[in-house]
Amino acid sequence: MHYSPISRRDFLKAAGALVVTISVPGTVASALSQSTDGKPPLTPDELDSWIAVLPNGNVTAFFGKMDMGQGVDVAIAQMVAEELDVAFERVDVVMGDTALTCNQGGASGSTGIQFGGIALRNAAAEARRLLLEGASQRLSVPTEQLAIENGVIRSTTDASRTISYGELVGGKYFNAKLDWNKRYGNPLAVHGKAQPKRPAEYKVVGKTFPQKIITEKVMGRLQYITDVKVDGMVHARVVRPPTAGCGPVSVDESSLKGIPGARVVKEKEFVAVIADREWDAVRAAEALKVTWAPPCTPFPAMEKLHDHIRQAKGIGSETPIKKGDVDAALKSAERVIEVEYEWPLQSHASMGPACAIADIRADSGMLLTGSQKPHYGRNGCSKLTGVPLDKMHAKWIPGPGSYGRNDAGDAAHDAALISKLVGRPVRLQYMRADATAWDPKGPAVVYRARAGLDAQGNVVAYDFFAKGFSRQDVIQTENDPKDTLAGQMTGYAPKPEIIFQTPAEKYEFANKRCGWECVAPLLARASPLRTAHFRDPLGAETHFASESFIDEIANAVGSDPVEFRLKYLKDPRHIAIVKAAADKAAWSARPYPNPNRGKGDVMTGRGFSYTERNGTLVAMVCEVEVDRRNGRVWAKKFTVAHDCGQIINPGGLRITIEGNVVQATSRTLFEEVQFDTNQVKSVDWASYPILDIADAPEAIDIVLINRPEIAPSGGGEPSTRTVPASIANAIFDATGIRLRKVPLTPQRMKAALDKA
Amino acid sequence: MKLSLVVDGKAQSVDADPAMPLLYALRDDLGLNNPKFGCGRAQCGACTVHVDGIATRSCVTPVGTVAGKRITTLSGLGTAEKPHVLQTAFIEEQVPQCGYCLNGWVMTAAAFLRENPQPTDAQIRTALAGLKCRCGTHMAILRAVKRAATMSA
After folding, report:
1. 3-class secondary structure per residue, A538-560
2. Residue A685 and residue B43: Cβ atoms within 8 Å?
3. How high is the ipTM of this complex?
4. How do residues A376-410 score in pLDDT, each as one tens digit?
5. In CATH, what number is assigned to the domain containing residue B46?
6. Across the interface, do A68 and B138 touch by the CB < 8 Å criterion?
7. B105 with B135, same domain?
8. Which residues of A touch B17 (CB under 8 A)?
9. Which of A106, A675, B102, B153 has the fewest beta carbons closer than 10 A?
10. Domain-ending residue, one of B61, B77, B93
């Protein structure tokens, strides 16, 4: 591939547009013309930053967020097609290129549709309004007498009067302004004078459309970031210290003798190797002899991690939910239940180790990255290399999976640093251990939950407290080198954010308190155990504890877990989601444990949980089999009810939910980062096992509740957090054993069964 | 050293260290990018190719050991005009999310279905054990393999 930066003007040309200048001052047509000096600036207040019409009338939408494989770009195309009244097939979505898209925050927080799509919807609606006005002028027909069908505007009174989008504005710019809230990233919002359509008018939104890119993937035609080659590039591999926190004292370059072209790249504590051939770079990274110091033991013993958290001094705390007098209610309660839950450190362990290509020159820079936030990667690499931001171009190319701030952001900075140091384009790919051991981690947490019950079994006090690592030892973007390994290894001081979470549900307990306290990172700088956002950050962790605990209370008062939840929920939408899951699963009320659990080797049970995430509601029933002989837990069936307001693409939403459920099942049953006092020991799939297809559920039944009148609130993550407790609760139903420490491995299950 | 390979039906020659994994010869020397680097330890399957019809992890297969053997990659499995039945099924079931693991599932399932054209669900799970997918598309994979078996029945 020959890489060259592409401008918006080049883009329209490449797409077959003839860029011409029309200026009709004082008429609305000027809004449809291109100014003499070409392209309006790529700022969110320009309609041209969002929508382009090609000469053939096809539409390109410029999306400043990203799709990581769940097909959010398909939903964006639907929303744009809907507002513009063009066929879905005629809309293309461009994303991930900093020269073509505004920074809408990249893939982030399940907001692709919730925020990103709404901006595109408003922009498309405004484009339609301007096109109608332009057509009205050109056809001399009032807009009220115009109708649009698939990009052709016609008079409703004179069928001979028609004009197409292509004829009106194809290849030209709108040169029209939008109101912009002056924010970038997730909060970016724009709107024009036009009102988007009412849901009753929808023809495209709400239907399933397939992902075109899937055909490219399946036929082996899609180029991934790992497949890109640029002229003159060298291959690089990083060399990480064997003990976390150590730096290189000396590097023996002669250890690379005999490997053609291999050489060392070193800057302060950062060490890498390059070679012309990839295999030589791989061999060089293995062969390189480095003396590391100082010796240190940065981590507690793994089995003491949660005790370390319990005993560690807090560095920040909050109590966001305070209702009534919890302490007094606990004191006067007839009975108090108090338990603790533990969640381990977890790795993104993306399907392939991250890869990036960087070409850093004296006066310009180019970054190709699989990161879900290329705009921020561009900012960070600009700071790291000194290339001015306006001379730095970043482009996303599909990578080996991404569910948050994984290793891709680090690879981008490593590649940029190496390219700067060697003066050539660099392709860096991590090896498996660089990914699993050194990617940012999902935080470990200890939860303490207490409930006070009166004599009738009513909950009079609810007290939920989390203590653990912040979810952002490095922030969720690679906007600044301080949040990357390359930065931290070359002198940028880390600055962890102190940020945590409380359960998201609407149980109306008279006295309720939910709070948290963060503890310091185990190792301040360049730590392989630094935390960052991993799909539904802290959601799986927190709601494993909170929804397990709700079940524990239900059990303590002898109540059916669904009835118990409904007793304390008052919000109709929340009640509806609980009922939807229970109904679909044919839930019949009874207390725990399952009276028909089975007397043989395999016991069966069912568990319930319900959660909210930024407006999206999920309730879930999990049915498990627990094997007495080996402790194997099979999450055999899930029944999921999902309400994220307006649904854009039900088929896309279903596969997204399936992915959430299976990935979260993997995290619940199998995943835990192994480490000793020196270093992370999870370096591959053997030492960081994830779910195997043998353990995939037999069925995932999904009930989608569509609420077209309620703004869409996102489906990329919310069903993740509902999974862990549904499994733990089902295990309790099957066995009478409450597992409170994730992962719920066969070893832990077997040990508990043997003890019972 | 110069090695002769037959890849996707075409005679090819690469000049490489015979100890180098086949994966790097395919990707870097022959520009065949469908086998992916996932782990380099034969633990995930993303690098799978067929060597004389047998699903093989190319990341741990020294290129010197496959000289003269018949190697098939995903590009050699089917074409746009004539996709492999698994490719049709994977598209119809909209299986891949990030898609990086897909090569391993399709290549492994293709070798399996050739020997077991009408497998049970349990046989499919056993045959595909050990392959990794981080996006959690396992349900769709199972549906697609089942569909492919039905389609070729």
Report:
1. CHHHHHHHHHHHHHHHHHHCCCC
2. yes
3. 0.98
4. 999 999 999 999 999 999 999 999 999 999 999 99
5. 3.10.20.30
6. no
7. yes
8. 279
9. B153
10. B77
